[in-house]
Design brief:
alpha/beta; four-stranded parallel sheet; 5 helices; 4 strands; about 40% helix
């Protein structure tokens, strides 16, 4: 787990980022594909469109959102596949998970990191 990090996609690229993985379902506004310098875009690991729209980044809904998103992460085969890929990559290099949300605390990336910490394949 010490090889997996979070970063806003709007922060500048750094060579130490290693493998850069976008974990948002939607492409971040105002970022070109060249500027993003992605290794992968795992849009399927993001919350379902219904859950994302329901949550709408409202801090007061975060606890319930977290429970629902964790359920998706634990039961969806595509999400499980991406989690395994992240761990496989992290065995050999640093992985930086990129997200676009403005709020650094109340977002799906934090929930995903918590789940990755819990699993530690």
């Amino acid at each position: 787990m010490s090889n997996i990090f979070l970063k806003r996609v709007y922060e500048p690229y750094d060579e130490t980022d290693g493998c850069r993985v976008l974990i948002d379902r939607l492409w971040p506004r105002g970022i070109s594909k060249d500027a993003a310098r992605l290794s992968f875009w795992f849009k399927e690991i993001a919350p379902s469109p219904e859950l994302r729209k329901w949550f709408c980044h409202k801090p007061e809904l975060f606890d319930e959102f977290k429970v629902k998103y964790l359920d998706e992460l634990r039961t969806d085969e595509q999400k499980q596949g991406h989690i395994k890929q992240i761990f496989e990559i992290a065995l050999n290099e640093r992985v930086t998970l990129l997200y676009g949300a403005k709020d650094p605390i109340y977002n799906h990336a934090q929930v995903l990191m918590e789940e990755l910490s819990r699993l530690q394949y």
